[in-house]
Amino acid sequence: MxxxxxxxxxxTRQILNKHKEELLTISDKHKEELLKQKEELLIMNEKHNEV
Length: 51
Hints:
This protein has 51 residues and is mostly helical. 96% of the residues lie in helices and 0% in strands. The chain is rod-shaped, with a radius of gyration of 22 Å. This is 9099_t:CDS:1.
């Protein structure tokens, strides 16, 4: 019984680690997208200020 429980814990830990990695990847992509949008807004703001 204990061996089964230990195996289940290990499997759960692996699943959680996989999800954590996926979330970090999504987070990195989201940060890149936000930085890109910020740059675009800064450029638009500069053009607007020139007018």
